[in-house]
Automatic annotation (TrEMBL):
Residues 503-705 form the Peptidase S9 prolyl oligopeptidase catalytic domain. GO terms for molecular function: oligopeptidase activity; serine-type endopeptidase activity. The lineage of its organism: Bacteria, Pseudomonadati, Pseudomonadota, Alphaproteobacteria, Rhodospirillales. The keyword Ribonucleoprotein does not apply. InterPro entries: AB_hydrolase_fold, Pept_S9A_N, Peptidase_S9_cat, Peptidase_S9A, Prolyl_oligopep/macrocyclase. One of its GO terms (biological process) is proteolysis. This is S9 family peptidase. It comes from the Bacteria. Residues 22-426 form the Peptidase S9A N-terminal domain. Keywords: Hydrolase, Protease, Serine protease, Signal. GO terms for cellular component: cytosol. The keyword Ubl conjugation does not apply. Residues 1-18 form the signal peptide. It comes from Aerophototrophica crusticola. SUPFAM superfamilies: alpha/beta-Hydrolases (SSF53474), Peptidase/esterase 'gauge' domain (SSF50993).
Length: 711
C-alpha cells in the first residue's frame, strides 16, 4: 500500500511536513457548519489555485521558522552528503546475467540506470555501463521525470518497459526501451500516463492493465481490465482477458518467465488482502484457478504456485494454517480442487515469513523470529521440500535483494540499527560472500540496542526496539523519538540509523521502533488482530509503548515525540488526538486523517479491507471513533504537530493533511505544515529534497524535545 512501502520511516530520512504557529497562513478557515458538512473540501482540490496558494503560504511560515534555525543548514548538508555519497552500496537486481542498478548522487540528481557484469559487480569498483540517463532525458524532453523502475523481457533483458513519473506520482508513462542500443524503440510499445501494470508475454505481446477510457477504472483508481496487446495493433481493440467489478480493487497481470516455461496469470483483487487468479492457457483464454481468496501469490517454480496463506485452508484432507507457505501444481488448480498441496515452510508461533524470492533452482525465504531476521533456502526433490538455514549474521534484519529465475545466484542484505549494511552474494546459491559494505556514518561504540516489551490495554505483549547511549540515565529527561506503522502486514525491522538517526543520536536523542499489531512481525494473525473494528488495538499498542518509555524513566511526555508516515500518519494523528498529554512532538507524514472520506479520495477505496467502509453504518461507527480529523476538539490542548505531504502524492490524497492543519488552526492550535509541490508518496522527488525534509524534521524535533523546559 501506502507504504510502501509504505512507511515513510525516520531511519530513511523521509520527508516531513512543516507549518508554524496557530495563525492561518492562507484564507481564514471557515467556521464549522452543520453536522456532516465539511468547510475544508476546497483543500481537496489537489491543484486548485486557492489550495496551492494556501499551501505555499504555510510553507513560507515553516521555512522561516525551521530553515531559519542555525542548525538547519548543517543538518541538511550532512544528510545530503550521506544520501549522495559515492561510497553507498549500489544495490542492484540480477537480470540477464548482469546486475542492474539505479543510481543518484550530487551529479546525477534524477539518476542513471546502469548495468555491470556480475563478476565486475563483485569488485570494489564495478565497470558500469549507463543504459539511461534521467537527467539528460528530462532536459531533452523538458519533463520532470522521476524514474519508477523497468520491466525487461527475460532471459536476455534487452527489451524493457521503462516507467516514468511526472514529479514522483504513482501514475506513470510506459515506454519501450532497447537496453542494448540505449534508445527508445521507434514505433514501440508506449502507454500514456496512468496507474497501470504491464507485463511481457513475449517480445511482440504485452498484457496491459491501464485506463482504457470511461468506466475502465475501479473505485480505487486502478485498472478494471487486462488486455492482450500485440505489437503494431490498436490498443483500444485489443482483446479483454479479464474484466473485474468497479468495487474490486484492481485487475492486473503477472507473468512468470522461467527456464521451464512461461506462466501467464491474471489477478482480480476483491480487496487489498484477497486474490482471485486466472491462468491464461496456450489458446489465449483465461481459466479461473480453484484456490481460496485468502492467499498471497509469491512466485512460480517447476509448474507450482507458491502461496503464502492469509487464512487457514482445508484441502486434500488436511488443514494448512495461515502464515504457511505452500506449493500447488498450476495444472491441478486449473483442473479443479488441487489434490497435491505441499508445505514448503510452516513458521512457529513466534515467527513469520517476510519475503519469498525464487531463483532458478531454489526458493529463498526471509523469515522473522521475534523480529530477528533469518534466511532459509527451500529445494524440492523426490522426497518433497528440503529446508536449509543460510549462515548469515544474527540479531538484525535480513532482506533478499535479488534473485533471477534464470540464475542460481542470490543477493542478500544484512543490517541492524548500529551496524552498516553488508551486501552478500551467494554464487550458485552457495556460501554467502560479503561483497559490499556501507562505511560507518557515525561511531556506534557509545550506543546500544535493546528489545523490550510493553503491555497493551488488552494484555498483549508488544515488542519494541530502543537505541540509545550505553550510559543512558533513567531520569526521564532523554529526548526520545518513537516510530510506528502498524498496518498492511508490514513489519518494522532494524535498519541502519544513517542520516536522520545518526544526527538524532549524536544530538543526545533516543530512538525507538514499535512492533505494534497491524504489522506483519508475527504473521497474518498479528496483522488481522488490528483490522477494521479492531483498529484501536494498533493505537493502544503504540500508546502502551509510549507509556512504558515514561514508566521506565527513559523519557517523559515533554521529551517524547512520535513519527509515522502514510498509515503511520494515521497512527500518529490518532494517538495525538487520543493521548495529547503523552507527547511533546508529533510528526504526521503523508497521512490518512479524514477516515470518513478516505475511501472517496484517490486510491483510498483499495484500503477498505484494512479499515472498513464508512458508507456502511456499523463500520462508520467504529471508524468515526478514531478518525483524527473528526476527533479534533477546540477545548483540548494538543502538542504542536509537524504535518507534511506532497501535492503530487496520488496515493494518499494531500487533502488529508491540509484539512487536518486547517482544522487545528481554526481551533487556534499551533501546528507546523510543509507541502512539497512534487515528490509523490515519498514526498521527495530526489535526494536533495530528501535531505531537506530530513533536516526540517530534525530541527522541529530538536526545538520541541531538546529545548522545551523540563517540568
Amino acid at each position: 500500500m501506502l507504504a510502501a512501502a509504505a512507511a515513510v520511516a525516520l531511519i530513511s530520512g523521509a520527508p516531513t511536513l512543516a507549518q508554524d504557529t496557530a495563525k492561518a497562513a492562507g484564507p481564514a478557515p471557515a467556521a464549522p457548519q452543520a453536522k456532516g458538512d465539511d468547510p475544508y473540501l476546497w483543500l481537496e482540490e489537489v491543484e486548485g489555485e486557492k489550495a496551492i496558494d494556501w499551501a505555499k503560504k504555510q510553507n513560507e511560515q515553516t521555512f522561516q521558522r525551521l530553515k531559519g534555525d542555525p542548525r538547519f543548514e548543517p543538518l541538511r548538508a550532512d544528510a545530503e552528503a550521506i544520501f549522495t555519497a559515492r561510497d553507498r552500496i549500489a544495490y542492484g537486481s540480477l537480470e540477464g546475467g548482469q546486475v542492474d542498478n539505479f543510481w543518484q548522487d550530487a551529479t546525477n540528481v534524477r539518476g542513471v540506470w546502469r548495468r555491470a557484469a556480475v563478476d565486475s559487480y563483485r569488485t570494489a569498483d564495478p565497470k558500469w555501463d549507463i543504459v539511461l540517463d534521467l537527467d539528460a532525458l528530462s532536459k531533452a524532453e523538458n519533463e520532470n521525470w522521476v524514474y519508477k523502475g523497468h520491466t525487461c523481457l527475460a532471459p536476455e533483458s534487452t527489451l524493457c518497459l521503462v516507467n516514468l513519473s511526472r514529479g514522483g506520482k504513482d501514475a506513470v508513462v510506459v515506454r519501450e526501451y532497447d537496453a542494448a542500443k540505449k534508445e527508445f524503440v521507434k514505433g514501440g510499445f508506449e502507454l500514456p500516463e496512468a496507474k497501470q501494470t504491464v507485463a511481457w508475454a513475449d517480445k511482440d505481446t504485452l498484457l496491459v492493465a491501464t485506463d482504457f477510457g470511461p468506466d475502465t477504472m475501479t473505485d480505487s483508481g486502478y485498472a478494471r481490465q487486462v488486455r492482450l496487446w500485440k505489437r503494431g495493433s490498436d490498443l483500444s481493440k485489443a482483446p479483454i482477458l479479464l474484466n473485474v467489478g468497479k468495487t474490486d480493487v484492481w485487475a492486473r497481470p503477472a507473468v512468470f518467465q522461467r527456464p521451464e516455461g512461461t506462466t501467464i496469470l491474471l489477478n482480480r483483487g476483491p480487496d487489498f488482502f484477497t486474490e482471485e487468479w486466472h491462468l491464461v492457457g496456450k489458446d489465449g483464454k483465461p481459466a479461473k484457478l480453484n484456490l481460496p481468496l485468502g492467499i498471497d501469490l509469491r512466485g512460480v517454480i517447476d509448474g507450482r504456485l507458491l502461496l503464502l496463506l492469509r487464512a487457514d485452508w482445508a484441502v486434500a484432507g488436511k488443514t494448512f494454517a495461515k502464515g504457511t507457505l505452500v506449493a500447488v501444481p498450476v495444472a491441478e488448480a486449473a483442473a479443479g480442487t488441487p489434490k497435491t498441496v505441499e508445505t514448503v515452510l510452516a513458521p512457529s508461533a513466534t515467527a513469520s515469513i517476510e519475503d519469498v524470492s525464487v531463483a532458478k533452482d531454489a526458493v529463498y525465504i526471509d523469515l522473522l523470529d521475534n523480529v530477528v531476521g533469518k534466511l532459509v533456502s527451500a529445494k524440492r526433490g523426490a522426497q518433497g521440500w528440503t529446508l536449509a538455514d543460510v549462515a548469515l549474521p544474527g540479531q538484525g534484519s535480513l532482506s533478499i535483494t535479488s534473485t533471477d529465475a534464470f540464475s542460481t545466484d542470490v543477493l542478500v542484505n544484512y543490517t541492524n540499527f548500529l551496524q552498516p549494511d553488508t551486501l552478500y552474494l551467494m554464487p550458485a546459491g552457495g556460501k554467502p560472500e560479503a561483497i559490499k559494505s556501507l562505511p560507518a556514518r557515525f561511531d556506534s561504540a557509545p550506543y546500544k540496542t535493546e528489545q523490550r516489551f510493553a503491555t497493551s490495554k488488552d494484555g498483549t505483549k508488544v515488542p519494541y526496539f530502543i537505541v540509545g547511549p550505553k550510559d543512558m540515565k533513567l531520569d526521564g529527561e532523554n529526548p526520545t523519538l518513537l516510530y510506528g506503522y502498524g498496518g498492511f502486514e508490514i513489519s518494522q525491522t532494524p535498519r541502519y540509523l544513517s542520516a536522520f538517526g545518526k544526527s538524532w543520536l549524536q544530538a543526545g536523542g533516543v530512538y525507538v521502533v514499535a512492533n505494534i499489531r497491524g504489522g506483519g512481525e508475527f504473521g497474518p494473525a498479528w496483522h488481522q488482530a488490528a483490522l477494521k473494528e479492531n483498529r484501536q488495538r494498533a493505537f493502544d499498542d503504540f500508546i502502551a509503548v509510549g507509556e512504558d518509555l515514561v514508566k521506565t524513566k527513559v523519557t517523559k511526555p515533554a521529551r517524547l515525540g512520535i513519527q509515522g508516515g502514510s498509515n503511520g500518519g494515521l497512527l500518529t494523528g490518532a494517538t495525538m488526538t487520543q493521548r495529547p498529554d503523552l507527547f511533546g512532538a508529533v510528526i504526521v507524514a503523508v497521512p490518512l486523517l479524514d477516515m470518513l472520506r478516505y475511501h472517496t479520495l484517490l486510491a483510498g477505496a483499495s484500503w477498505m479491507g484494512e479499515y472498513g467502509n464508512p458508507d456502511i453504518p456499523a463500520e462508520r461507527a467504529y471508524i468515526s471513533k478514531y478518525s483524527p480529523y473528526q476527533n479534533l476538539k477546540p477545548t483540548v490542548t494538543y502538542p504542536e504537530a509537524f504535518v507534511y505531504t506532497s501535492t503530487k502524492d496520488d496515493r494518499v490524497h494531500p487533502g488529508h493533511a491540509r484539512k487536518f492543519v486547517a482544522r487545528l488552526q481554526e481551533f487556534g492550535k499551533p501546528v507546523v505544515y510543509y507541502e512539497n509541490i512534487e515528490g509523490g508518496h515519498s514526498a521527495a522527488a530526489n535526494l536533495k529534497q530528501r535531505a531537506e525534509v530530513t533536516a526540517l524534521q530534525l530541527v522541529y524535533l530538536m526545538q520541541k524535545l531538546m529545548e522545551k523546559p523540563s517540568n
